[in-house]
Write a structure and sequence with these properties.
With 284 residues, the protein is of the alpha+beta class. It has ten helices and ten strands.
């Protein structure tokens, strides 16, 4: 299987070399899929990606991702996009609490143009019911660890109707700090839109706030995002952070690293057993 993946990557690289010409030097640009490359010709440098998000042009026009330069379709059906190479860096985890992150995510979530386009591309909305069905695709472990996982699933199932929220937005769905890029002029971009979906904004907010921003900082962060912190939002974010954590554990495999997974299982258990999800940051 690994040989086939390597062969596929090399074949795709060859197609790109033929497309660009012999003066361009290609290198893989991270990731394990072989979909992204950097290309250099002297001082000119591009970021190339195969089969990226169909609404990349709109993201580029709104300054959410680096400028889209061109799009080409290969004879095998793959679509190649070329973007301006950004000389910058990924955000550090502690930088996710800065107001610029909140402001950009707020602008994305309020974009009607992005929402209208994604609704035409992706018809299924990621409601709590759909997300619960997604969990059923995983094989549950049949040992003592499964009690925490089943308890978390029952927690989500019991509360899915209570947290339903129909003011849907475009969600990026992967708020990892590695997807936030700051260029040399301190311009901020959110990249890697392959998993974007129409959903409750709390799907994005839950991970970003729970995993990157201290709870006492939630209210000022949300002010920069342009949203009030209230009980209803906290309840929805609590449901989604339980879902994210459970989905992450199941997707990674509970036996991948038992010590590491024990930490995540304890965190999941604490979330499920947390009766009072209302926090001190709501106090005056």
């Amino acid at each position: 299987m690994e040989y086939l993946d390597t062969h596929k990557k090399e074949k795709r690289k060859k197609w790109l070399e033929n497309l660009l010409g012999r003066d361009w030097e290609l290198e893989t640009a991270g990731g394990s899929t072989g979909e992204a490359f950097s290309a250099r010709d002297g001082e000119q440098k591009l970021f190339l990606k195969c089969n990226s998000s169909p609404f990349l042009a709109v993201l580029s026009a709104e300054g959410i991702v680096p400028k889209l330069l061109w799009t080409k379709r290969l004879t095998n059906g793959d679509v190649i996009t070329a973007q301006r190479w950004v000389n910058g860096r990924k955000l550090r985890p502690r930088e996710m609490k800065q107001p610029g992150v909140a402001a950009l995510l707020g602008r994305i979530h309020r974009s009607t143009e992005l929402l209208d386009l994604l609704k035409r591309i992706e018809s299924k909305v990621k409601t709590p019911e759909v997300l619960l069905q997604q969990l059923c695709a995983y094989t549950l472990p049949a040992d003592q660890q499964s009690a925490i996982i089943f308890r978390a699933y029952e927690f989500l199932k019991a509360r899915k109707s209570a947290v339903y929220y129909d003011d849907f937005v475009v969600c990026h769905c992967d708020m990892n700090h590695n997807n936030w890029i700051m260029d040399e002029e301190e311009g901020l971009f959110l990249v890697d839109w392959d998993g974007a979906s129409v959903a409750d904004p709390a799907l994005d907010l839950s991970i970003l706030l729970h995993w990157y921003v201290p709870k006492e900082g939630w209210q000022p962060w949300l002010e920069a995002y342009e949203l009030d912190l209230n009980d209803r939002l906290l309840e929805r974010m609590h449901w989604y952070i339980v879902w994210h954590t459970l989905e992450w554990i199941l997707s990674k495999g509970i036996y991948e690293d038992r010590g590491y997974m024990q930490v995540w299982l304890r965190y999941l258990g604490a979330l499920v057993e947390e009766d009072d999800w209302r926090i001190a940051c709501l106090e005056d």
